[in-house]
Write a structure and sequence with these properties.
single chain; 418 residues; alpha+beta; seven-stranded antiparallel β-sheet; five-stranded mixed β-sheet; 10 helices
Length: 418
Amino acid sequence: MHLRYSYRICPTAGQRAVLARTFGCARVVYNDALAVRKEARKAGLPYPRSTDLQKLVITGAKKTADRAWLASVGVDPLIQSLRDLDTGYRNFFDSVSGKRTGRPVGLPRFKSRKDGRQSLRFTRNGFRIRGNGKLNLAKIGDVRVKWSRALPADPSSVTVILDPAGRYHVSFVVDIEAEHLPAVAAEVGIDLGLTSYAVMSDGTVIDNPRFLRKAEKKLKAAQRELSRKAKGSRNRAKARRKVAKAHAKVADTRRDWLHKQTTGIIRENQAVYLEDLNVRGLGRTRLAKSVHDAGWSTFRRMLEEKAARYGRHVGVIGRWEPTSRVCSSCKVLDGPKPLGVRAWTCGACGTVHDRDLNASRNILAAGRADRLNACGGPVRPGVAIPRRAQPVETGTHRHAGGPGHKPRAAGAAGIPRL
């Protein structure tokens, strides 16, 4: 199982200049390779192979006067930018042919130096962790890392990221074994909403924190200050970064809260069932700001990733299931109800239902039925259901002493213990 561990880094002024130059060189190599492939397509020729592109836009370009400055940076990030281009084309062709599910993927586009997010990737030959805890990057030097926790194994690659707020991060990819938690008997269905963020079938209610709504006053002031700055001025660049920092704080707070909620749900329940919400469609309605602020897609993704890591099950029922119209007691289908109706009485058995609690109980029942009757699943009740592990992306929070904590691997030397 591949995990990703992210940390803040503190490059010096000279290292930031070298990183900026490396960002630019990787972007130029990517755009040059994309231009070559576009010209080949217009001419009706086959796409150049990656090795030919590397010789043309990296090795050969260094010998020309226009691209001689490519030799001033490490070659590893330049090669990785070509691999990113190959990945973009592969995703496009898989999307067109139907091999890739989800939203359609378009052709790769040219990168701009004005993009708020810049990134570089180094393989094993391009980085090394020193004994004093610093990260050595090829032709950049030793960079100080804020180790929030130790790496569980030797990383296979590292990505250097510059976000719109001007913060530098490094993201390590490590390969570890899944850490299955002890099995529990509890299962839960979750109904997501805006009034209450989540209502569970066991009666637990999670309030909606509304991080964006609470920060709107500061965001409006920062954006108003940005609009009054002259375009192209240094003051406008400072104001733009101030707005980016305000948005980054909201996003970080929301991500931290989602990590805590999903971790608690996964640890306490063996199976979790959700409803397949049309978040993309709801994001185009008058509720768009509240829907995006809730982060339902991130909540579901975190649950699925942590379930794969800790040996739990996450089931998703169809979005057309009438969970709000069926009585969870007698299973009688009642009529449609507008969103303003938060409680109703079943006409068949007389049970008074809270709308969200009733929906969560129906989600639990539908999820259990789908899980027991799934193709390839067990025939007898009580038999363990096989689970397929998926790639997991972790946050940056400490888990020292927790159930999923493992001691540092012997090969991950140079990382200070916390």
